[in-house]
Amino acid sequence: MEEVGEQEQTPFLDPSPGRPPLSRAVSNTLNPGGRSEFLLQAKKNTILKSHGRPPWYDEDGHAVHDAFVIGVAGGSASGKTYVARRIVQALGSIPTVVILSQDSFYKKHGPEDLELAFQNRYDFDHPDAIDMPLFASCLADLKAGRQSNIPIYSFKEHQRLDETKYLYGAAIIIVEGILALHDPTLRDLYDLKIFVQCDSDLMLARRIRRDINERGRSVEGVLEQYLRYVKPAYDNFVQPTSRYANIIVPGSDNTVAIELIATHVRRKIEDRSRYLRKDLARIGPLDLTLGNPVDQSFPNLTVLRQTPQLRGIFTMLRNSRTRREDFIFFTDRLSTFLSEKAMEFLPYKSKNITTPVEATYTGKELAVEHICGVSILRSGGPLERGLRRVIQDIRIGSLLIQSEDNTGEPLLLHLMLPDCIRQRHLAKNSFVFLLDAQVGTGAAAFMAIRVLLDHGVPQENIIFVTFIVAACGGVRVLQRAFPKVRIVCGAVDPMLRETWALWDTTPQSPSQDGDSGGLGTPTAKTKAEAEAEGRKIWVVEPGIGHIGDRYYL
Q1: Fewer beta carbons within 10 angstroms: which end of the chain, N or C?
Q2: What is the mean pLDDT of residues 460-488?
Q3: Using 50, 70 and 90 to split pLDDT, how confident is the model at 505?
Q4: In what residue span(s) does the Phosphoribosyltransferase domain sit (predicted)?
Q5: Whole-model pTM?
Q6: If residue 233 lies in a helix (H) or strand (E), which one and from where to where?
Q7: Share of the chain above pLDDT 90, in %
Q8: CA 366 to CA 268: how far, in whole Å?
Q9: How far apart are alpha carbons 318 and 110 in whole angstroms?
Q10: How far is it between the farthest Cα atoms of the chain?
Q11: Cα–Cα distance, 117 to 230 (Å, whole number)
Q12: Where is 348: in which H helix or E strand?
């Protein structure tokens, strides 16, 4: 199980392609900025992964299920965080999990409250100390599949910091906190409610050790706060919420309970599994006339005019004997043409300027607040240079979407998005160039568009730029599901052929359709072995092959 703590620019820690899932949690990766007060937040608010997030939507592009949310409550130092992590470990190979701590949602304190806090005279265990509306709002966003920016609270400063932690993409959310079951709005968001029951003496001993080692407190201060606030709050507010729990888990010796919980969660996640790729690959062909910009039934698909120059570029790119340096050169030329064409779909406004001869000229300039590129790794990478040639200093993010070994379904393994997408109030006014080399089944393109929509980017602000699309592939599904997304491509290829993945001596990525790479270490070297392993791929014909390999290797 992979784990990442507070990281500003890398919200997901992605396993390398072919790397098997780990069965145990590893140590946290902290913010490179190195602020020590992030330590506790990094430990509690974490994203853990084993093999990525599978599709959470249907063929119409609609999210069909929410994340599965588990609420874990209990007394201070009862072992809530430990139970949450043990549940994750017991789940084994599961999609992305977020562990969300109530401690992040302490209210921002004024001068008087800060003075009391530093004197250990502020009641942090009272429900009024928690910003419950913000807590519920952030959890509701994560449950619905939207991104959220979680507050960061410094226990040393006794203050909510200006920094936030970006979270997105969880299939399972575990919420832990002493008052996790107290607020009815929060309880309504949970699919499973757990209360950790622990002996009071054991909780006090754990709290003394934790607060001294992690929060820099003195023994006297810990005991005073415990007797004044912690124990009364537990009796009055925390313990009574156990009646809302579906399961009571002991604070120690809880292996059996955790295994039962993990079995239940695995069953629920399996019931929500989606298998769409074969349906995406078997859609009827588009009725396109090459050289004309659109099919009347798909007005947002634009194909570059098939000039002799463009056909010459494609001849070089399709030729398997083209030298690598020539392939890179012509790929960059084509990506520049595509980016220039995509620029036509951005909004412009008039601008008057004065020319060197003192004449007035009425021209145009971009009328966009934010613009960025997002590359679907790694086949979208060859389009980045052309985009940078057309838009200087454009911010480019990335998505790593690869195929699951057995089903061929796309898995979201990693994303690194520009800030104008990560912040929802900015995303709604942002235009995004989404880059991928080919649209075969359209599985990776479908997931990438869904990710942008989850962040608040409007459909009409997404321009998908690609070298080729398969006429009989998933582009028709993209049109039906996302009718306002524009697609700009260099050519439409007639065939999308289903075949078996075969490998020579050196295993290679099983995907050849440009949608994604593969996971695991393939072993098949003959058709019979490949069929036995069930590794099917879809190949675009005549196609360009695996563009990422040809461009980078």
Answers
A1: C
A2: 92
A3: very low
A4: 306-498
A5: 0.81
A6: helix 231-233
A7: 46
A8: 48
A9: 65
A10: 86
A11: 14
A12: strand 348-354
Name the token pair of 106: 């302490």
Q: Where are the beta strands (DSSP E) in 356-435?
A: 360-366, 370-377, 395-403, 410-416, 430-435
pLDDT exceeds 80 at position 11: no
For residue 68, the Cα-to-chain-centroid distance in whole angstroms is: 16
Adjacent-strand bridge partners of 101: 176
Residue with tokens 């061929």: 408
* Residue pair 435/380 in contact by the 8 Å Cβ criterion: yes
Tokens 């190195």 sit at which residue?
A: 34
Burial classification of residue 344, based on how many CB atoms lie within 10 Å of its CB (0-12 exposed, 13-18 middle, 19 or more buried): exposed
Task: Classify strands 192-197 and 247-250 as parallel, antiparallel or unpaired.
Answer: parallel
Look up tokens 């912040």; give the residue: 423
153: left (phi over 0), alpha (psi -120 to 50) or beta: beta
Q: What is the pLDDT of residue 89?
A: 86
Taking residues 488-492, what's their average pLDDT? 95
Determine the Cα–Cα distance for residues 454 and 431; give it in Å rounded to an integer: 15
Res. 323: pLDDT tops 90: yes
- The pLDDT of residue 360: 96
The four Cα atoms 215, 220, 224, 227 give a dihedral, to 10 degrees, of: 100
Helices (H) and strands (E) in the chain, counts: 19, 22
Write out the DSSP string of 86-128. Answer: HHHHHH-S-S-EEEEEGGGGBPPP-HHHHHHHHTT-S-TTSGG
Q: Would you state the pLDDT for residue 130?
A: 94
Question: In this structure, how many other beta carbons lie within 10 angstroms of the beta carbon of residue 439?
Answer: 30
CA-nearest of 486, 443, 494, 451 to 466 is 486
Quick one: CA torsion of 434, 545, 443, 394, rounded to 10 degrees? Answer: -10
Mean pLDDT for the stretch of residues 401-409: 79
Domains in the chain, CATH or no CATH each: 2-271 (3.40.50.300), 277-491+547-552 (3.40.50.2020)
The DSSP line for 463-517 is EEEEEEEETTTTHHHHHHH-TT-EEEEEEEESEEEEEE----SS---S--SSS-E
Over residues 50-63, mean pLDDT: 82
The token pair that represents 268 in the structure block: 């629920």
SS3 category, 371: strand
